[in-house]
Amino acid sequence: MSTGQAVHMNQGEGEASYARNSTLQSGEQNRMRPVIEEAVKCLIKSTKSDGKIAIADLGCSSGPKALALVSCAVDAIFQHYRADREQVPPELSVFLNDLPDNDFNVVAKSLVAFHESDQRIGLVTGGIVPGSFYKRLFARSSLHLIFASSSVHWLSRAPEDLRTNGIPMYDGDDDLRQARGPLVLEAYARQFKNDLNLFLNLRAQELVSAGQMVISVPGRCASDGTCHKNLAWDAVACVLNDMATREVIDREKLNSFYIPIHAPSDVELREIIEVEGSFKINKMVVHEPKSGMDKSSITPKMIALGGRAVFEPMLVQHFGKSDQIGEEFVRTMEQHLSTGRSEFPPPGLFLLCVSLTKMV
Ligand SMILES: C[S@@+](CC[C@H](N)C(=O)[O-])C[C@H]1O[C@@H](n2cnc3c(N)ncnc32)[C@H](O)[C@@H]1O
């Protein structure tokens, strides 16, 4: 990342790892399944795969769930060829991408286990592709299916204009925060627009004609015109503000801390895709963040541990205090959620799942 921010989830498979604390993201991967199955059908109907299909997950992170989306696509492809015995099943390659600091050791083990447990002829492991999805990752016209869950809302960098104008992501002063909220949101939206434009352009080069892409990001509904917050990080910033007030972290450091994620509105997302022009939108599905999940498992502690798994590397890099900051973050977030100071999901936050076909 150009700002040098430590963008990776907590590594390994221990207590604080992303692998063990990503139930909410897994919930969205499950909700994406029918959309992925439809994308596979669409692909098989409309493209000539020449006996091979290449599938990539971008921003896969680590842990067993890194393979959830590609595995869903592999199942759907084999199901199709089982039903139509006249056709020879294609050879499949799967590629898993994330930033270089991701824990690829865990991913490599999951990939090997997936390959070994799957005896179906034609399944060929592709491999691991470290690098930013804001650069070209694959050869031209080499991919048939691309998936990305809870990753494309990560920006290539936090909005530089906020930093240069000394506008913090989250003002400690309530009035200032209210007044500057729309400005901050606009700066994030501009950065997201630039980044998503680039992402779409790069993926359009890598996909075959009529190739399919399914992405899901946290987002908002534009009809909720009153929301001037970045819902992707507002609750986290509120926790950090509390920690700064209690002098657990340094207020000045908080004022120069920017979380590089943006939750777009449905209209914003649709408009960027349409104007960029490489893809046709097949459908956009709006998911409620808890739908299809066991609601009793979604406790304040579970959400706080999930937040820690995502943000701890970045917090340690910026604020230091590596042994305390994660623990204190969990304690504070759990308390905010238990006392109603914040809510999960924050009102107005949804997951926007969009299915796209690359135009010829
Ligand atoms: C919240 S995790 C989601 C992981 C997984 N897709 C899931 O649904 O559980 C976001 C992932 O996106 C990755 N990511 C963020 N920016 C990226 C970029 N520019 N290129 C590749 N991966 C990126 C992060 O490193 C992280 O592993």
Automatic annotation (TrEMBL):
Polar residues: bias regions: 19-29
Classification via SUPFAM superfamilies: S-adenosyl-L-methionine-dependent methyltransferases
MF terms (GO), sorted A to Z: metal ion binding; methyltransferase activity
Name under which the protein is recorded: Uncharacterized protein
Disordered, as annotated region: 1-30
UniProt entry keywords in alphabetical sequence: Magnesium, Metal-binding
One Pfam family here: Methyltransf_7
InterPro entries, sorted: MeTrfase_7, MeTrfase_capping, SAM-dependent_MTases_sf
Family recorded in the similarity comment: Belongs to the methyltransferase superfamily. Type-7 methyltransferase family. SABATH subfamily.
Highest classification ranks of the organism: Eukaryota, Viridiplantae, Streptophyta, Embryophyta, Tracheophyta
